[in-house]
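Feature request disguised as a bug: please show the residue count (240) next to Hydantoin racemase in the output. Example input:
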Amino acid sequence: MRLLVINPNTTRAMTAKIATAARRVARPGTEIIATQPDIGPESIQGFLDVARSQQGLLEVARRHPDVDAVVVACFDDTGVDALRCVFDGPVIGIGEAGFHAATMIATRFAVVTTLARSVPGLEDNLDRYGLARRCVGVRATDVPVLELETHPARAETRIASEIAAAISEDRADAIVLGCAGMADLNDRLARRFGLPVIDGVTCAVTLAEALVAAGLKTSPAGAYAGGTERERTVPCVAAP
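Example output, currently without the count:
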């Protein structure tokens, strides 16, 4: 099985962290192809960055047409719907995967993410996925995404503080980490708090493998129909 894991931003250190998390849980025989666009924002924090990342995301995806499934390693689930119009195999966003994993092991979960401007987009996704009632809150740490790479200890302290508040104030039974750059923290934070702390990267990888093993593909009907034809008609061309 060949699994394409795309970090939609251009920060290579974050792609390396995502690749490590993905390979840690991948089945024997699964090849993880971890990559990122050549163009676009260094981090994705809110609606503008999501829009700026779309062109690079589609361009890098077109370089790998022969994979069995795709994981989009951005918690906003950036470009997932567009990629489902292009790929026949499953396309899984780490946000949706993390949310669904939480609902299967807890009755109430909270999301702990980076900046406050990312919160409305995540709340929109929860509502669109039909999971808003299961989420007791989306908490922002005010940690910029790139600070997860440059000042990891300080970032972890602030993330832990919001987890503690989500447990005590929101009565969360599980925590979903709201950024791919937090993919190396879930095990340590779960031990610290004694509750499930969920990383969307590992959930998305294992879910993608399960869907491929079950022989399931993206539906060619409805909103995802006809994507290949549109892709040929309106090619994604890298900016000069």
